Amino acid sequence: MKEQLTKKIKILLRYLVLVVWGTQVFSVAAQENQHAVAGLVVNTSGAAISGASIKEVGGTNSGRTDAEGRFTLELSTADATLQVSYVGYVTQEVSVGGKSSLRVVLMETNEQLDEVVVVGYGTQRKANVTGAISSVNMKELESRPVVNVVEALQGTTPGLTIQQSNSQPGSRPAINIRGINTLNNNDPMVIIDGILGDIQNVNMADIENISVLKDAASAAIYGSRASNGVILITTKKGSKGVSRVSYDYIFAEQTPTFMPQIVDSWEYAELRNEALINSGRPTQFTAEQIADFRANGPNTNWMKEIYRTRAPQQSHNLSLSGGGDKTTYLISAAYLDQESMFKGPDYGLERFNFRTNVETEVSDRFKVGVRAAYARNTLKDHAYWTDWLIEQATRMPSIYPIRNAEGEYTYPSGSNSNSLARLEQGGVRKSANDDLSGILNAEYKLWDGLKLRGMVGTQLYYNRMKENRKAIPGSGDLENRSTNGSQRIQNITTNLILSYDKTWGNHTVNALAGYSYEGSTDNRFETFRITEESNYDIMGGLQTVNTGNQEWQHEWSIYSAFLRMNYNFADKYLFEFNLRDDISSKFRRGNRSAWFPSMSAGWVISEEGFYSEGLKGIMPSAKIRSSWGLVGNNRIADYQYQANVNIAQGYNFGNTMYPVASFDAANPDLRWETTQMFNVGADLGFLDNALTLSGEYYVNDTYDILIEIPIPGLFGGGTPIQNAGRVRNKGWEIAARYQFNTGAVNHTVSGNLSDSKNKVIDTKGTEWINGFDVNTIVREGYPINSYYAYRWDGYFQTAEEVAQGPHVDGITPKPGDLRYLDKNGDGIVKEDDDRFVLGNRFPRFLYGFNYAVGWKGLDFSMFWQGVGQRQVWLRGESVEAFHNNNEGPVFDFHIDRWTPNNPNATYPRLTVGAESANNAIKSNFWIENAAYLRLKNVQLGYTFPKHWTDRVSLSRLRIYTSIQNALTFADMKGGWDPETADGGGRIYPVNRTFSVGLNLNF
């Protein structure tokens, strides 16, 4: 493997040498006498701008202004030109003209095309980008009371789909870029400061920039795992001559956004009697009992009883940054405490973050940097399964109290459990997660424009879990179970990159070639013991029954070589070419290597001579671009090309031997899954570029998909992975941003809208159905994992309609029951013949809208986010009255049920037991419209004037209040949140968060 890669690296280095030689013939080296200049940089109000960048045009000398806006710089010539820039201001070029002192005034600007965008292994001016890249405006995410940056990103970027199905401490929102490309893993690649990282463990206050790479032109440089897109995160660093101390504090209260509404006890009793009568059974409640319920309750909402009315959350961020002439530094620490909404012994999440970024210029040619980060997550939770606890609470009707008159927990039904008892007395699960990463990088300037960069980074992830589950008297639980587990993952990343940047006349060339290595080792161990001692958590000893353990170890590695070349002619014609070769250990020799090329081009029409001044007055910037390329995916379990033996702990009818039970079949012909991406886009600017508009259209074809093709269970072993599928995913994106002033008031309006839709093209003639509560199907011609069930066709209104059919096979319906379409017209509705493809859980037509306004020290912002189309299939106790013959619950929407006097009801007749079989069948009656519009964040703040803060030795003081998930507009049955996952509705709620905050800068 290494010999093969070495040959390819030599080819790439020869290519780079040719590029350097070819461009050098157009350049002439010059030596000039040095000249010193000092200066002051201010804004139009005369206020000093600290941290402004000062660069000598055509030279290597550069610096930054200090806290008072001043700078000094040694120049190569007295006639040099300086480029002065700062975020939010127009970049200026100032001729020195032999002067030794300058005063530079920067004007605020709405210009967005001069922004610098982070790309793979480098940066580019936004105006010169030819790929589909979105850069997140971190300023708009400031001060949001979120637990991690993923929550804050929702709705901010077109094509970036984030689904937060719940707010339970430690939960992980789902992330997708441009929809679903594969039947395999669809998670994007996340790179933090050059190495693979966990986006959930990054302190949002430490982030300088987030770039989302969405097409092959931007992502192919990463080759492997880039088929699902790439998220690049760059953390902050210090500035020369500027020292800052910053402190942020947020205190918040969490409450559920939605909570199911159930009927009172007396209504429940009446509806229960009705259901029993409809099912041919005697009633359960007398008129006297119903009257007592009406007068005295208890009207217990068991789902509400397991939650607190509110739970506090707080965060602290402290950072120190600055630098001298040669060295810059940033040191930060953060603390988060999120308490759980569950009642119980202090459930919740604590996170501690620490980061240090240091860079130093050893000489004019050589600089080194060190970046280190540490995150510890400590999660304390109940010892059960969250969905099961919520399920048990959902099944309890309002007629039973949580506790009896003596204050003891009640267990009113043999098939149900008291979830509150388990939360408060059933034991705890504690996990401590340590995430430590370190990066050492260096850069050496070989000569003008030619640099050699190297980086070595490592990430160590260590997790320890201890669970002590206790038996609860009266619940039927007699076992105390202790479980200990640990996991240790170590990732190593190295790369060496040679880059060359040169401009001569109208020609600009940027090229790089490099080598990288990534390796990972994953070790896991778990052991358990079942005892009669409730507090017995020591796992060693002589116990030989009701105990066990298991252990795993996995390793993988990737060797890569890559190159990129950009050519820019007069900022008018733009070209880019990328190529990467990945060699993965997940495939056998001969199939390990794969090449991933991409190419893109852009045409800045507004730079053409025929682009008239009148047109420039309307649309000063206009660029069209297109890209094509290949990216790969190798996200399968390790060792799939080899046969793996599984050892079972005993036979089915005994426990004395440990035989070989089964094996996972090997597939030595496995090869890379590949996605071909095509993208066209346009970037337009209006009103002096105060209004910018961008649009994208893309088509992604993924082939050789790595999937398990279902085979008969009689095979006796694990199904082998195969390259056997093809999926097409296409969509479009629109984003707009407008910045303007009305007098002293600053306005920013931005929005985005996007859609993606996938279709299964080929599954080698097979299809498969998944799920228990909810069935999904993978079928050619339809989206991946589409819902698959009967189609509802109204109610049977009369006995005559029932007699005419059609009927579900083996069931005789009655008036008020659901009727289903008989696809083949044989009068019998059967699974084999009459099921339909009925929609998809993946959201479509995603949109976000942000408005921010500032006047003097006041600022106000609101951010709306939503989904235009999404289906959610709710089943069981989340929507069905008396589900599975359990006693409850009954929701408020069940009141509008079918009766002879209410034939157009929203719910069928009430039934229990076997009489419910017809209506409980899987059909689109239970599929909900989960489209929604949500006021994701609204914030009001005030920044105190500088003459006030100077009195207390502060450079900035801001106070603010904010609400996260403030309002939601949706149409879901039962009061479930529209972002909830499909199934039984057994989901911890999404939280609404009220917060106040403070920001101090020294």
TrEMBL record:
One of its GO terms (molecular function) is siderophore uptake transmembrane transporter activity. The keyword Nucleotidyltransferase does not apply. It is a multi-pass membrane protein. Residues 126-230 form the TonB-dependent receptor plug domain. InterPro entries: Beta-barrel_TonB (IPR000531), Beta-barrel_TonB_sf (IPR036942), CarboxyPept-like_regulatory (IPR008969), Plug_dom (IPR012910), Plug_dom_sf (IPR037066), TonB-dep_OMP_SusC/RagA (IPR023996), TonB-dep_OMP_SusC/RagA_CS (IPR023997), TonB-dep_rcpt-like (IPR039426). Belongs to the TonB-dependent receptor family. It is found in: Cell outer membrane. Keywords: Cell outer membrane, Membrane, TonB box, Transmembrane, Transmembrane beta strand, Transport. One of its GO terms (cellular component) is cell outer membrane. GO terms for biological process: siderophore transmembrane transport. It comes from the Bacteria. This is SusC/RagA family protein. It holds the Pfam family Plug. Residues 415-958 form the TonB-dependent receptor-like beta-barrel domain.
